[in-house]
Amino acid sequence: MPTAPASAQPTLDPSLTLALAAASRAAYLAYQQQPYDCPAGYSYLDAWTGWDAFLCEGREEAFGLVFRSDSDPGTLILAFRGTDSDMDVYEDVHILTRDFQPFSGSLSPPPQVASGFYGIYADRGEMAQSMREQLFALLKKYAPSHLHVTGHSLGAALSQLFSLDLALSRPMSATNLNFSSPMVGTASWQAIYAQTIADDASIRVYNYWDYVPSVPPAELGYAAVGSGFRTAFYVLGEWFPHELSRHSLVNLTTVLGNALARTPQQWAGKFADFVEPDWTMLSTLPPGGGTVDWASKIGEQMQFERSLREPG
């Protein structure tokens, strides 16, 4: 397997990146009603919810946390949680597109985004305010001078919807650093995002061997936005993909914790899997070239599995 570092990767601020990963992890734990640690140098400030819908049913769920910098009260982290309920899964697979329109003003023609992600972000359902309305109300309430926007998986997708909405509706100093994001919209979304938000102000951190950043598929017109920071890790000695381990925010954070103080910011080593502690994860330098064609990879995997069943 090639082991050349991915070219032209952005340089990440180690302390900020790990703080944003911790904030994203805290958003999951808050939804699960479990104790969590605030990101280093930040304190809890507030929270918001979103509407998860499936067919004629829906419910309000906790979706994010706001943290305030201890040293600079004008700096906030907004952290979106990822998939963590059955309703989230229903929304994740709604890949038919719908129009994206900003909180203030309009776009013509409107860029196209995944209806499931956008529904959680923009639809009110039976809530007093939609997620989007709550977020802009929080900005009005706390009047920050700078925002760090983050999230993992579904939360990363929601964070990018908000970042573009913010840039169009209430331009201010803000950056987006997200983890393991799926693709949010089609080429029309990618174009308006690139026109509005600089690549160095929106960074996707992901694992080369994770399926999620390659879906919804490019064959349906979906495209990634911002710049990408690539890592590479997988379960050592296992032919099966073990996607939960590859997609784990905790595993990704472990790799980043070892990599970001180095030059270049990559790490080759072994560590215990968070999902299955008896398994060993292997982190390598990320392969060069483009992203993985997972349709071909799945075919290769099936062929390998058939070979194991054949005698001799």
The amount of beta strand, in percent, is: 15-25%
Question: What's the rounded overall pLDDT mean?
Answer: 89
Using the CA coordinates, give the radius of gyration: 19 Å
Q: Give the spatial strand order of the biggest sheet.
A: 1-2-3-6-7-9-11
Helix percentage: 25-40%
What name does CATH use for the topology of the domain at 14-231?
Rossmann fold
SS-based structural class? alpha/beta
The dominant shape is globular
CATH architecture of the domain at 14-231: 3-Layer(aba) Sandwich
Q: Can you count the helices?
A: 9
Uncertain segments: 1-6, 85-93
How many angstroms separate the termini? Answer: 26 Å
CATH superfamily annotation of the domain at 14-231: Alpha/Beta hydrolase fold, catalytic domain
Q: Please summarize the sheet with the most strands.
A: 7 strands, mixed
Number of strands: 14
In N-to-C order, the SSE pattern is HEEEHEEHHEHEEHEEEEHHEEH
- For the record, the CATH class of the domain at 14-231 is Alpha Beta
Summarize the topology:
Layout: H1 14-31, E1 42-54, E2 57-69, E3 75-80, H2 86-92, E4 97-99, E5 112-114, H3 115-122, H4 131-142, E6 146-151, H5 154-169, E7 174-179, E8 185-186, H6 187-196, E9 202-207, E10 222-223, E11 227-231, E12 233-235, H7 243-247, H8 249-259, E13 269-272, E14 280-283, H9 294-309
Helix pairs in contact: 1-8, 3-5
